[in-house]
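Late entry, evening session. Most of the bench is empty. Finally got around to the prediction I had been postponing all week. Sequence below, unchanged from the version circulated by S.P.
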Amino acid sequence: MLPDGHFSVRQEETPPPPSSVAGPADIRYRPPHSPETNPNRYRNFGQQAGAVKWELAAILAYYTAINGSKLFKEPEWPHFHKEGWFGKSTNNIGVDKLAHSYSSYILSEILHARLRRKTGDAPGIQFTAAALASATMLYTELWDSIEPTAGWSWEDVAFNTMGAGFSVLRNSVPGLDEKLDFRLMIIPNSSFINTQGKRHFEQQRHFFALKFAGFEGLNKGPLRFLEFHLGYYAKDFTLQDRALGVEPKRRIFVGFGLNLRELFFKNSSSRVGRAAGEVLDYFQPPYTALHQHITN
């Protein structure tokens, strides 16, 4: 009560968005936290891993399902296999290595998103997500180790680790997730989409996308709809190509693409729109970028 007898109405300030080691929450792109979540409950690895136990179980079940048939195809005792890196004599000219890195990265990002929602953005969840993703990829490598034509590959393990590591970096440096993505683009061929084999790898373009919309000074003008791309793909390495004496091509490329999330889903208020925007951080639809290879 004031001296003149009137009551004072206290204005309550709206609290700012929660912050974390990954920086201030991005209201445009990220879903709200559950109000019942207490980050203090999830201070260690075990507590955080327990928060996503069902998600992890589903991921492991998926990899078990797609690899289980290897038990019935003349399996061998687990063994090692040196696959090489990006040499022209390697089976897939390094595209398979980037595919491993991308898979590990995607798993880390999925688990990080779930941990962020379930733990209220508890500290260190990016490390927990990366560790669980890396462990999952080691599990898949065990399946490879019993194949007669494959084996445990330390090259695969190295690229799995790099993919998970990039997820840690992206979710630790404030604002980096608004500036830099690791994406996959699949270019249709005469069969449209191949789901396995060398043709499958030949369709893949892995690249980093530098998003101008994430930079102050560029995020208000037309450049916010563009991105700079730097990536790698390979071609002419199928068994038929090699039998004909065609030399495999290893191509680093640069170019520009459309930031489709910024263009269509920047301020989406619907769950479907937000989900579509999230997908576009990881997958670039074909024919939405102009690329030029700088190596052959």
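Two things to note before I forget:
Confidence is low (pLDDT under 50) at residues 5-14, 19-28.
The first strand starts at residue 19 and ends at 20.
Will write this up properly tomorrow.
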